[in-house]
Amino acid sequence: MRFAVLGGAPLDPAIAWLFLGLGLPVLQGYGMTEASPVISVNRPESNVPESVGIPLDSVEVRIAAGGELL
């Protein structure tokens, strides 16, 4: 196995680092059902265990002011 991809609840970074130390990178992702469902994911070449990665190429992400309708 080259890597594992996880979604759902956040993974404790200590566990992610443990698996990385054993040679199994754990790539976390983030998504919502409304977004069909993946928004972002770590890539094997740029994995950061404390992160859910960068948005997929086909996804537009923006941070809005509180209460702004998107």
Concise structural overview:
With 70 residues, this protein is of the alpha+beta class. The chain is built from one helix and four strands.
Task: Please give the structural blueprint.
Elements lengths: L3 E3 L6 H9 L4 E6 L6 E4 L12 E2 L15
Give a written overview of the molecule:
With 70 residues, the protein is an alpha+beta fold. It has one domain (4-55). The chain has one helix and four strands; from the N terminus they run βαβββ. It has one helix at residues 13-21, and strands at residues 4-6, 26-31, 38-41, 54-55. The chain has a four-stranded mixed sheet. Helix 1 links the parallel strand 1 and strand 2.
Count of DSSP-assigned helices: 1
Secondary-structure element order, N to C:
EHEEE
Helix content: 10-25%
State the shape.
Answer: elongated
**Biggest β-sheet description:** 4 strands, mixed
What number of structural domains do the residues give?
1
Number of strands: 4
Terminal Cα span: 40 Å
